[in-house]
Amino acid sequence: MMPNVFLVNPVFNEDELTAYWHYTMAVVPGLGQAFIDDVAKRSGSLEPTRFVGAIDHPIGDASNHPDLRIQCEDYDILFEHKLDSPLGTDQLPRYLELASRNGWKLALMASNRVEVEDSVLQSTSFVRPRGAGEPPHFLWQDVHELATTSNHHIAREFKEYLEVLGLAHFHWAGLGNPFIDDVAAAELRSIYDAVGRLFSGRGTSCRKRPNSLIYEVRKPFDPIHLLNLGPFPSVQQWDRRLKRPVMAMWLWVRRPGGGDKPLLPSANGYIRGTSPRVFVQDSGDGKPLPYDREVFCERYYYIYLHEVLVESQKVSQERLSAFVETSVNHLQGKLALVESQEVA
Q1: Contact partners, residue 44, CB within 8 Å, separation at least 6
Q2: Where are the beta strands (DSSP E) in the chain?
Q3: d(CA 105, CA 69)
Q4: What tens digit of pLDDT does each residue of 139-179 get?
Q5: Is the pLDDT of residue 44 over 70?
Q6: Residue 126: exposed, middle, or buried by beta-carbon count in 10 A (0-12, 13-18, 19+)?
Q7: To 5 degrees, how large is the angle CA 138–CA 136–CA 208?
Q8: How does pLDDT run across 209-244, given as a tens digit for each residue?
Q9: Contact, 244 vs 231, CB < 8 A?
Q10: 130, 164, 198 — which closes off a domain?
Q11: Angle at 135 between CA 118 and CA 69, to 5 degrees
């Protein structure tokens, strides 16, 4: 594997992401210009201009600390960055007032769709994409695509870093990205219906979590207390074998008294004979559910998301069901495991 300066000792938070993006624009020729060209074109309101530089965490005031200031020849844009955390109370209105006071623009860069107040959207100082179906802000996935266009090794390493964070685009044929697009998300939730038919034991309950892509099965069979099913944009932060988005099934067991010893036997590798390959990994975090100190996550099953979500929704549903059935059969000892840590 080629060395990557951004992955030497990663922390994976918004401040680190901002610092790395700032550094990448400073080092890679033409990337900052390509970024501001893309922002201006997609905004429909900004004129093309020359990229001058960027300031990481520019000075705001006592209560406002925006992440990045992009300096251009004709205007400056304050960017607020979001990775996992939500917007703070009145955060964008406060930053908009700060930007307007200084004659700057304001934009939001996020990893998923974020709702933005109407008062911010209506301001001529707020910059956002205007394409049909786009969220009311820019996406880190767009930065990933820009980094892909450069041959510079720092751009390549930053692109890989974004992939580890799950910030690469995923396109479900004809539907878009279920992590961002409402239509694709709704369609993904609809194909979970077939999974519920696989679990009909007494005391078992299945449900789609509200406002989430997670399907939940409670008490499917002993010793599993909880089975969750859903997509991850990346699992590389804890499993470096898989480099693209995955569909995951992760299992929770009840340990009476909250003991440290796992109930499930160790399993790391892939299920023999599976095509597409189904990967298996122990969960090693050792943390119980916050609301039930006896319930621990002990195992993950993965399959690449593009192997499940294909152009035909009927086939997508069948593949999802097959993934769940295969994983359950392995869990119940009906299928063998090939022990492996190979990168896929």
Answers
A1: 130
A2: 51-56, 68-72, 76-81, 105-110, 138-139, 205-208, 215-221, 224-232, 246-254, 269-271, 279-282, 288-289, 292-304, 337-339
A3: 9
A4: 999 999 999 999 999 999 999 999 999 999 899 988 889 99
A5: yes
A6: buried
A7: 100
A8: 998 999 999 999 989 999 999 999 999 888 888 988
A9: no
A10: 164
A11: 80
Same domain, 228 and 311: yes
Q: What is the pLDDT of residues 48-58, one digit of tens each?
A: 999 999 999 98
- How far is residue 273's CA from residue 131's CA, in Å, rounded to a whole number? 44
Last residue of a domain, one of 136, 164, 192: 164
pLDDT tens-place string over residues 305-342? 999 999 999 999 999 999 999 999 999 999 999 987 76
Sequential DSSP letters for 130-189: -STT--SSEEHHHHHHHHHT---HHHHHHHHHHHHTT-S---BTTTB-TTT-HHHHHHHH
Torsion-angle region of residue 185: left (phi > 0), alpha (psi -120 to 50) or beta? alpha
Q: How many residues does the chain have?
A: 344
Tokens representing residue 156 in the block: 């390549």
Same domain, 221 and 133: no
Contact 237, 12 (CB under 8 A): yes
For residues 108 and 82, the answer to whether their CB atoms sit within 8 Å is yes
- The answer to whether residue 157 sits within a structural domain is yes
194's tokens: 């077939």
* Residues 40 and 157 grouped into a single domain: yes
Ramachandran angles phi, psi of 109, nearest 5°: -120, 120
Q: Which domain holds residue 287?
A: 182-339
pLDDT in the model for residue 5:
93
Q: Inform me whether the pLDDT recorded for 285 exceeds 80.
A: no
Residues ≥6 apart with Cβ < 8 Å to 259: none
Neighbour tally for 134: CB within 10 Å: 16
Structure tokens at 51: 């990229």
Q: Which residues contact 183 (CB under 8 A, 6 or more apart)?
A: 175, 176
Provide the CB-side half-sphere exposure for 234 (13 A, CA): 18
pTM of the model: 0.84
